[in-house]
């Protein structure tokens, strides 16, 4: 019985993959905007992209098997990303969006060189807060946090296990214990007092899905992330290239080993920041 079920699910996966490839081939004349992240985090960015560019076609690659990226060395991340870009480049793409702060902050120039298409990254928007001298806390993965350690007027915390907790509970994000991660699995100094920080910067796209938990804990005046600036840059590029689609309805294709789960999460998860 067990063997039969395994064979059936195996066959089902093969048929589904063939079907997805068929659909993608069918629309091969489309020029996709590819979106890449280590897992579901980039779906928070994708959700904003489809709102701003309602007529574009998107290709989402969530590399959930290799998550978390934030605890890996730059060398390892680069070799993973090169392999992933090789997969993405099998499709006709007009731009690549790194919906991942860890890749953007650490590897943007290597990835730009390799991708061969216009590549956009997402970065924690620290400059504005620093200039305005706001009390600001940056929450990010360990790898990203290391890049901001010496930024004046900025407190930085690297969270070691939060992305794993989010990935492990993608269909029940209520279960993610943010406060526990903060207390037991974080590096960096911060003031743990409600209302102390004016601004919290979310330096990892996964955290967008637990924004309410973070807000409840710190009670800042505002919580920001790099999506707005990424969209601003992408819009400028597409406009200059006269490449903004005007007539179609948006479509999103999911590729990679976890395509099915990511598509389901994209469809079922509500607006970003509801959890
Ligand atoms: N969501 C990604 C980021 O923005 C990657 C997190 C991870 O895999 O550690 O940093």
Describe this structure in words.
- By secondary structure, the protein is an alpha/beta fold.
- The protein has 11 helices and 10 strands.
- The strands form 2 sheets. The protein has a 5-stranded parallel beta sheet with strand order 4-3-1-2-10, with helices on both faces. Strands 7-6-5-8-9 form a 5-stranded mixed beta sheet.
- Bound molecules: D-glutamic acid.
- The site of D-glutamic acid (DGL) has 16 residues, from helix 4.
Write a compact overview of the structure shown.
This protein has eleven helices and ten strands.
Layout of SSEs?
Elements: H1 2-26, E1 32-37, H2 41-52, E2 57-62, H3 74-88, E3 93-98, H4 101-115, E4 119-121, H5 126-131, E5 136-140, H6 142-146, E6 154-159, H7 162-168, H8 178-184, E7 186-187, E8 199-203, H9 211-218, E9 222-225, H10 227-240, E10 251-255, H11 259-268
Parallel strand pairs: 1-2, 1-3, 2-10, 3-4, 5-6, 5-8, 8-9
Antiparallel strand pairs: 6-7
Helix pairs in contact: 3-4
Bound molecules: D-glutamic acid.
Query: What is the H-and-E element order?
Result: HEHEHEHEHEHEHHEEHEHEH
Identify the strand order in the major beta sheet.
Answer: 4-3-1-2-10
Range of strand content: 15-25%
Give me the count of strands: 10
Report the uncertain regions: none
- Number of separate helices: 11
What share of the residues lie within helices? 40-55%
The rough form would be described as globular
State the end-to-end distance.
Answer: 39 Å
